[in-house]
Amino acid sequence: MCIVGNKKKGYRSLKEIGTFMMTTCFIANYQSVQVCQAEYFRQLLKPVT
């Protein structure tokens, strides 16, 4: 009975960690995309010499 309880608890925490990691990864990707876009528009709007 104890082993089953521990397995469930371990699985739940693992799932939570996975969700947290996915969220962190998504936020990091979103920020890098925004930085890339900002850099792209900065280059685009720079007067051509």
UniProtKB/TrEMBL annotation:
It comes from the Eukaryota. This is BnaA07g07520D protein. It comes from Brassica napus (Rape). The lineage of its organism: Eukaryota, Viridiplantae, Streptophyta, Embryophyta, Tracheophyta. The gene is BnaA07g07520D.
